[in-house]
Design a protein that fits this description.
The chain has 172 residues and is of the alpha+beta class. The chain has a domain of 91 residues: ACT domain (Alpha-Beta Plaits), CATH 3.30.70. Helix content is 44%, strand content 17%. The protein has a five-stranded antiparallel sheet with strand order 2-3-1-4-5, covered by helices on one side. A hairpin with a 2-residue loop joins strand 2 and strand 3. The longest helix has 42 residues. The protein is elongated. The model has no long low-confidence stretch (mean pLDDT 82).
Amino acid sequence: MEIRSIFTKWGFILLFVVYSILWVNASEADKPKVRKIGKDQDDDPLEPDELPEHLRPQPNIDLSKVDLSNPDNILKVSKKGKSTMMFVDVNPELTQSEADNILSIWQTSLQNNHIIAERFPIDQKRAIFMFRDGSQVVDAKNFLIEQPECSYVTLEGQNYIGKYASTVSNVS
C-alpha cells in the first residue's frame, strides 16, 4: 500500500517534469515564429476604409468646383464618406401600420435608387434614416419631401416641409 502511494506520488512528479520540459522546449522553438507573426501584423497598417470613421483621413474639399449658391451641393461635398442621420415624419393622419408600411416603402425606393439607408423607428410616425455616405442624404431628402405622405424631414438641424404636408404645427 505504501509502495503504491510512493509510486503514484513519484509518477505524478515525473509526469509533471516531462510535460514541463516538453512545454519549455516547444515554446522556446515557437518564440521566433510568434515574434515574427506579431511583427508582421504590427507593420501592416489598416486601409483607410477599414478604419473607424473618426480615424479616417478627411478628404480634401475643393471649393472652386462646388456651386456655393446651392446649400445642397455644399452639404453633399462636406458629408461625403461620413455617416449622416435624417429624421423623417409621416402624415399624422395615417395609422401606425400605414406609417410603418410607408417608411418601409421609402427605404426600399431609396435602395432601388442605390441610396443605402438604414431605418430606425423612434416614434409611431417618425423614423431616423441613417446614411453611411452622407453625400446621398441630399438626394434622399429631395425624394422624401416630394412624397404625399411626408410631413417633414429634419436634416442637420433644418426642417424641410413635405410638398403635400397639410399641417405644419409639429415642425419646431
